[in-house]
Specification:
two-stranded antiparallel ribbon; alpha/beta; 7-stranded mixed beta sheet; Rossmann fold; globular; 19% strand
Length: 294
């Protein structure tokens, strides 16, 4: 098997998240609102959870899980400082190399934290192995279209200032790929849908400050390492601020899947039906091509 493509500089992601830990409280309201969308799905199940893994919750998700009656919550992050913000058990680890034993958790929650993983299919397989049978996996990822106005403004400004452009905003996944990804990882009853979190900023600098506070600066390996042209950011910010406030809604891809268990429903085996569809519908069964009245 070929190695997964390396899109993100994971060491750089870790350093930036570590620095951001001191300021992440500035964006806690955004993270909390996003987590509410995700954790509301716990209300749709009667299953009670005992041991939860919070991946990349940045000090927001773990307290919300405890408030829902889950006593044992472990917070994990690439950054030790960020993991410690969860307020309980904390582990500094990489989603691509999980340190947990099989069947350690009956709930795994990843709120806006898996989008810079290079090997997402492999990470999901490892997470499924760390889940107990009939355990629940919940995740949200920023979807395609996230920060699109910022992306376009930076490309145009860099092209104007230097005659070229390099990746300044990370790529984001598409909804249509997500359910298949969950199924490929061995998760049962996979569901993927999208909700939109409305967000707006009064200034472009305010947006940049919040991205830094969340540890969400550009970590694409293909980025240009040289200092950007002096005129690039003023041009891009001026383009963004033509419309005030700057509306940048966040499309959140919401993923749900279950660790397989014998109690879960399964599709019937083809040919195993014991009743005719015509009987259920109260109609007369005919062979293919046969017309009514014949």
């Amino acid at each position: 098997m070929s190695a997964p493509p390396r899109i993100f500089d994971r060491a750089l992601v870790a350093r930036r998240r570590d620095r951001a830990a001191a300021r992440v409280a500035d964006v806690a309201p955004i993270l909390h609102a996003a987590a509410e969308f995700l954790l509301d799905r716990l209300d749709d199940t009667t299953r009670r959870f005992e041991a939860a893994l919070d991946i990349g919750g940045r000090g927001v998700v773990a307290p919300m899980l405890r408030a829902r009656g889950i006593a044992r919550v472990t917070s994990m992050d690439l950054s030790p400082r960020m993991a410690a913000l969860g307020g309980g058990a904390a582990v500094a680890a990489d989603e691509e190399w999980l340190p947990f034993a099989p069947e350690s958790f009956d709930l795994v929650v990843a709120n806006l934290s898996l989008h810079t993983v290079n090997d997402l299919p492999g990470a999901l397989v490892q997470l499924r192995r760390a889940m107990r049978p009939d355990g629940l996996f919940l995740a949200s990822l920023p979807g395609l279209g996230t920060l699109q106005p910022l992306r376009e403004a930076l490309v145009e400004a860099e092209a104007t200032a230097s005659g070229g452009a390099s990746p300044r905003v990370a790529p984001f996944p598409e909804l249509r790929d997500m359910a298949a990804l969950l199924q490929r990882a061995g998760l049962a009853l996979p569901v993927a849908d999208m909700v939109e979190l409305p967000l707006a900023w009064r200034s472009a600098m305010g947006l940049v400050r919040d991205l830094r506070a969340a540890g969400e600066q550009n970590a694409v390996l293909a980025r240009n390492p040289r200092t950007p042209p002096r005129a690039m950011f003023p041009l891009a910010f001026a383009a963004l601020e033509q419309h005030s406030p700057i509306a940048l809604p966040l499309p959140m891809l919401m993923l749900t899947g279950w660790a397989p268990h014998d109690s879960q429903s399964r599709p019937a085996r083809p040919g195993s039906a014991t009743a005719r569809l015509a009987e259920a519908l109260g109609t007369e069964e005919r062979s293919a091509g046969e017309k009514a009245g014949q």
